[in-house]
Specification:
The chain is α+β, with helices and mostly antiparallel strands. The chain has a single domain, classed as 2-Layer Sandwich (Enolase-like, domain 1), CATH 3.30.390. The chain is built from 4 helices and 3 strands; from the N terminus they run βββαααα. A hairpin with a 4-residue loop joins β2 and β3. α1 crosses α3 and α2 runs antiparallel to α3.
């Protein structure tokens, strides 16, 4: 059964080996948001998104407070429909970087579940050769 039973998110701060800067910003750490999704049959998937030093806690809050609770009880096979549902929840606050990163982490986790259940790599399920 592919019903989502748990959907969690956590934040990992990853130091970069070499500080990098450009005309706009400094890349001194990578805030990585990890999303883990588990289904009733034990299938699990992980997705992530990252920022270059700021905004990771905002992505995490959006996921925990608004997006992940919606996934519980839903069919993980409906990747596209779930993405559309989550996107619709954020319409009033606009789709900016925070929302895009949160949706990407969930989308990747759902695709990871789908690929593992199918025993196929993402490139093949995504239509590759």
């Amino acid at each position: 059964m592919s019903i989502i039973t748990t959907a969690t998110a956590k934040l990992a701060d990853i130091a970069v080996e070499t500080d990098r800067t450009d005309a706009v910003q400094s890349f001194v750490k990578q805030e990585t948001v990890l999303v883990d999704i588990t289904t009733a049959d034990g299938s699990a998937g992980t997705g992530y998104a990252y920022t270059i030093g700021t905004g990771g806690t905002s992505v995490l809050a959006l996921l925990r407070d608004h997006l992940l609770p919606v996934l519980i009880g839903q069919d993980a096979r409906n990747v596209e429909a779930l993405w559309q549902r989550l996107f619709a929840l954020t319409r009033a606050t606009t789709t900016g970087a925070i929302t895009s990163l949160a949706l990407a982490a969930v989308d990747t986790a759902l695709w990871d579940v789908r690929c593992k259940r199918a025993g196929e790599p993402l490139w093949r399920l995504g239509g590759g050769p």
